[in-house]
Structure formats: C-alpha cells, structure tokens
Amino acid sequence: MPEKIKLALAQGATCSGCDIAVLDLDVDLLRLFEVADLTFAPLVADGKYADVEAMQDGEITICLFHGAIRNSENAHVAKLLRRKSKIMVAYGVCAAFGGIPGLANVTSKEKILKTVYEDTATTVNPDHTRPQTKYTSPEGHALELPELYEEVLMLSDVVDVDYIIPACPPTREMNMKLLQVVLDFVNGKAPLPPKGTILALAKTMCDECDRKRPDKVVIDEIKSVDYTKLDPTKCFLEQGILCLGPATRAGCDAKCMKANMPCRGCMGPTDAVIDQGASMLSAFASIMKTSGSDHLIPEEQIEKLMEKMRDPLGTFYRFTLPKSLLRKVVHEKGTSPKKD
User: Fold this and answer.
1) Vertex 16 angle, CA 10 and 18, to 5°
2) What are the extents of the domains in the chain?
3) Tens of pLDDT, residues 240-287
4) Which end of the chain is more exposed for a tag (fewer CB within 10 A), N or C?
5) Which of 190, 132, 201, 125 is closest to 167 using CA atoms?
6) At a CB cut-off of 8 Å and minimum separation 6, what does 268 contact?
7) What is the pLDDT of residue 290?
8) In CATH, 5-101+151-186 is 3.40.50.700
C-alpha cells in the first residue's frame, strides 16, 4: 500500500454539521483511515494553528474546508490551509456559495453589532460595550478577537478552490463518492477529476425527483408547507408549495422531497444558471395563474400573491446570496480580505 495521504477538516462560519456529515460515514471511516491520516480537525481532535504552520507547504493532501468566510480568523485559516494543502475542497454549501451565514449580507456589520449589543432586550449591556479586536487586560495580558467583515464571502473569494461539494450538509452518498475518488486516486486506479469539478450532477433537482408533475404547472396561490396537507406523490409546485427544484442542482438523491419537504436549494445552481434566485423567481412567475392578458400580469395581482410569501429574498437566496448577482443588498465601506 502506498504511503498514507494527509487529510484536514477546516472550519469557517459554520454550524459544524459538515463535520458530523463526515463522521456519518460510520464504518466506512475505517476504509478512509486505511489510506488517510487526519492531520487537522478541530471539532474531533486537538490541533493548533502552530502545528499546521510548522508543516511544509503542500504537505496536506486534501483539505475539506466547510463554512463561509465571515471574519479575519476564517480568512486566516482558509489561506493557511490553502498554502499547506495540495487540494482544497469547498465542502458544503456555506463554503461553496455562502450558505445560511450569507444571509447576513442583507444588512450591515454596524446594524448587526447594534442589534446584538445595544437593542436586544435579553442583553444586559448598559454601556453598549462591543467586542474589541485587541485588548490588554489589567494584568497585562494581550487578547485578540477576529475582525468581523462587512460581508459574508465564499471560500473562493479568499483562496483558490479545486473542487466543490455542495449541500447542507453533503449526504452520506456524496461523501461515499468522495471517498471512492480519494481511494481510487491513492491506489492509482484513477486520476483526480478536472480542477473546478462540482461533485454533484449537472441536471436539476426536478430531473432527480420522482414526484408526478403535469406538463404545465399553474397555481393561483402560495401555500405554507406548515399548514398544508401534502400529497406525497405530487409535485410541490402543483400543490402551491414553493420548491426550488427547477433552479437547483441535483445530486443529493432528492432526500428532502422523499421526506415530503420541498427543495430549499442547498445544492446550489446548475452550470446553466447564473443566478439561482433569479432563475427560480422566473420559474415561479411562469406558473402564476393571473387574470387578464397572458403577456401582462397586473401589478396589484403580483403584490397580492407576493404578500403570501414569507421572506422572498430568504426563500430564493437562502443558500446562495454571496454567489448571486445581488451578493449584498446594502453596500457599505468595510474590510474584506483579498484573495491570495
């Protein structure tokens, strides 16, 4: 057997669900550890940045980086692991496209800090004290905190990315596919995929979903999935439930739909889509049943329909706002890292 490769699991702004997704390999973790040593994984093992800094550049074979870039520490870790790794993988939708943390781009750093440290009723902070990036304690100890960036970034905004694995989090099947790619590479059976490959399918989620849908879907109202009795065999859109399947990449085996929940878009856009939210908004507009001309939808009718949609921006851009053409709703001066 060839020498073991070195694997790293690094984190940005994340819920750490992607770490758990890796552990979900269960007994197949043993197959992975037969060929790979886990050299850095803060959630599961004690490791220091100094240990990574002491490694040779390119010493780590593959780094799975999950989470968005929200602050200076996230950027530092991303740049450090990029330098020390031969292969950098944007693992999970937060690293790939910004994910849920990316929704912070609808506001500003100042508004977030003001809400948390001044306006929240549960915060006892009469002096409105905010975290400082540098502080020296009365005992003389120098303390540092990461700097919060003005906007949430994707991993590829900060470092060069070799491969992307979307989803929230990647499924067991997707991880098994990645494991097989690693095993085949290590054992000399196959080369790595071309750089830039997204380890998912090129088709849309609708093509992967086995629900029945008519040739043309037409709805006259938007329903809430919370208060609607759903037919587990029919297309969600046909039932008036917003589903992002038409604008979302396939590859997760349509797990949400099989659990009778609509697609929320965590696989990100297909290669044919420039902006996932805009694509879904266009698809949604095409199925609305409206009175009057087929070519002109009365504005008041559009407003009436949209009033029933909770959080349109959060619905259409739930996982991909930093990747979208919008990227950030309000642009203000701030600090963001430059890509190496």
Assistant:
1) 75
2) 5-101+151-186, 110-149, 205-309
3) 899 999 999 999 999 999 999 999 999 999 999 889 999 998 888 788
4) N
5) 201
6) 93, 96, 97, 166, 198, 248, 249, 276, 319, 320, 323
7) 55
8) yes
